[in-house]
Design goal:
Elements (H helix, E strand, L loop, with lengths): L1 H6 L5 H21 L9 H12 L9 E2 H11 L5 H12 L9 E4 L17 E4 L1 H7 L9 E3 L6 E3 L8 H5 L1 E4 L4 E4 L4 H13 L5 H4 L13 E2 L3 H9 L1 E7 L1 E6 L5 E7 L6 H13 L6 E6 L8 E5 L5 H11 L3 E7 L1 E4 L2 E4 L2 H42 L1 H10 L3 H12 L3 H9 L7 H26 L1 H19 L6 E2 L16 E7 L3 E6 L13 E2 L9 E8 L3 E6 L3 E6 L13 E2 L12 E7 L7 E6 L3 E6 L11 E2 L9 E7 L4 E6 L3 E6 L13 E2 L9 E7 L5 E6 L3 E6 L13 E2 L10 E7 L4 E6 L3 E6 L13 E2 L9 E7 L5 H31 L2 H9 L8
Parallel strand pairs: 8-17
Antiparallel strand pairs: 1-3, 2-3, 4-5, 6-7, 8-9, 9-14, 10-11, 11-13, 12-13, 15-16, 18-19, 18-21, 19-24, 20-39, 22-23, 22-25, 23-28, 26-27, 26-29, 27-32, 30-31, 30-33, 31-36, 34-35, 34-37, 35-40, 38-39, 38-41
Helix pairs in contact: 3-4, 4-5, 8-13, 8-18, 13-16, 13-17, 13-18, 14-15, 15-16, 17-18
Amino acid sequence: MSDTKNKLIPVQIEDQLKQAYLDYSMSVIVARALPDIRDGLKPSQRRIIYAMHELNLSPGGHFRKCAKIAGDTSGNYHPHGEQVVYPTLVRLAQPWNMRYPLIDGQGNFGSIDGDPPAAMRYTEARLQKVTIEMLDELEKDTVDFKSNYDETRKEPEVFPSRIPNLLVNGSSGIAVGMATNMPPHNLGEVCDAVVALIDNPELETSDLFKYIKGPDFPTGGYILGSEGIVKYFETGRGLLTVQGKAEIEINDNEQESIIISEIPYQLNKNLLIERIVDLVKEKRIEGISDIRDESGRDGMRLVIVVKRNAVGEKILNQLYQYSQLRNTFGVINLCLIDGTPQVVSMKEMLNNFISFRHDIILRRTLYELKNAEERLHILEGYRIALNNLDEVIKTIRASQTPQEANEQLQQKFGLSEIQAKAILDMRLQRLTGLERDKIEQEYNELLKTIKRLKEIAEKRELRMQLIKKETQEIKQKFADDRKTMITAATGSFSMEDLIPNDSMIVTITHDGYIKRMPVNAYKVQGRGGKGLSGSNLKEDDFIQYIFVTTNQSYILFFTNLGRCHWIKVYEIPEAGRLARGKAIVNLVQFIENEKIKAFVTVNSFATPNYVIMCTRNGLIKKTALKAFSKPRAMGIWAIKLLDDDELIDARITEPNDDIILATHNGYCNRFMEKDAREMGRYTQGVRGIRLREGDYVISMTIIHNDEGSILAISENGFGKRTGVSAYNTTRRGSKGVITLKTTQRNGYLAALMKVQDEDDLVIVTKDGMIIRQKVGNIKAISRNTQGVRLINLKDNDKVHDITRIEPEPDDETIDREAEQLSKTNEIISDWEKDAMTIEDEMDFDAIDDADRGENDDSVS
């Protein structure tokens, strides 16, 4: 009893709990939750792959049951039960979780919907080709081995991976008091960064952005902005805003659908659908009529059907705002370095991989050098024996035992025990002349190999070049295209970041339907052709406006009542040639009896330009463009109109421009833009042309220079081109001169526009017919003439409007325009800075109030 008491050691319960919890914490951190920075694997993952390696489950070979793999892993290396091992194995084979899967699975391995995998007895697996690159040098003493849990086997402490696996596949895990969440990256980009860092170890973190653009998630999608990427590159921690890929499609019934083809990384698709359904039930999103999951072999396709009276872009933005379709990914680059958890920057991760590969190559070189020297030693014994063949044979025959023969050979020829044993084990066929030549050839090649290996072992720069070469080989074998796109925008994100700035044709009908189409929707036809139907219109509707712009431009809609509405081109639904489009009332808010009469497209409101507006009664008004930069939901006043007048056109002008106003009866007046003084928004304007009785203005054209020609077209489809110089500059308010004879054949003047010979002309009729033809094919004649036929019209049809499409530029033109655009953007940037100061100081409401009291005597 006394002996038992002497063996008892008093311990404070608090101290024991602290020590026990500390031991548990370290076990979780080091042996379970965190990856090793060298091969990027956790112990459980490494043991599964090593067990498969021992089972010889190589790529292209046979599959084995996952139950066998999990059983061997659990029984030999990972003593936590096969039910724990199997989920880890499954994740290594899932392409939506691993950027470069390490296991090739056969059978049901789950889905991105969150469906569980089949039981391990039903699934099979083998290693991927990329995984072999992690194991290839395992037998060359490149890494240390340790005993398994029961000391019956040896397992590698780390794999001699040629793949920077931690960077390309990332990792996630929750330890005690810490967690890791490392995003995957593109293998080709990472290999480029490794090579660049070998060439220049002094590279800064900012220089690495030239090679690694940021995370590359297996599910694709977008990363919004680069601020979070910069932060985790530099510090190892950052917050990324990720977003799924969605597009808006319009079906044959002109109904919009949102098509989601990619979702944020680690998002369960079923949970996303459930969230969208909840948002609809809670009425936080209104305008969704149906949700269908049409995903299949061709990839993900989640269809969200938009109600007819709703706008797809608006619904999509609400999905980004309220659902996980736009989410955040918190980066924590926490991993084990020499058994210690550390948060590392991008450069530190790359340097650690390079240092690891350097150690691997050095150990591999020494191993190969040792083997080569041992083999050379034996070959040297062979050469001695072959040079003294008769005496060697005599010595062997005279010996009573193999041991005696071994000793005699060592004494007579100065051989080592190993050489003597190799000679005794040598087969008689090695004594032939051919075999003797092979021995000599192998001996000479070994001398070269040993020399090369010694150079590698002695010179660090050769080892670094070897790392570089092998990394480039890895890139060539396994690199693929980036899946995740990174937007250039910083800070807040807008839809423009995902929308290409392509050229578009926008059409607006008399009943107020609008759509956008690619410029190539029409084929070029000869003069006098019948044209193509541009819209599937109602019987009493016709295309009223057609113009060319780009997706990211602004459109200022000017209405017959003198109001202005503001919209982005990409917010207009894209539709096919025969589609009617969407009602403008669903995009902007009109008041009663308000219709679109004019439009202006601009890229920036900061430019020092003006908007020139003209009315049916021949009045014009010039207002600074910046005055229209802050629209309201119900629009803003652009011009003050008399009761019997209406707005017919609006254009962007510059101080040196001229203005041509054309009338229904075929008259036009050209005058200088500077003749019209600048006014506020809510003013009447001044007289542009003095009208004859019964006449009214139908067109306004802006002249920047005398290049090109003026094209006039009549209601009956006759038109002509006349040089710009034929229209003399007069004064504002004159009666004008004849531009096209309005006869019974021609009808009245329908439109007038400045064109270039290389342009395409698009003619629109009231019945919705469209024809596209080369401007250069239209005859150039004098001003006071009737013109030639440009389009064959059906009975009772009339020409309503025209527009021009500029030709595609060649490489030289592109280079020239790119240089000019760069200069223009710098100017616009300066203008925008100045405009921000001006807008802060200006009160447009107060200006409107002042303008309402202004009387312009020149109108009367």
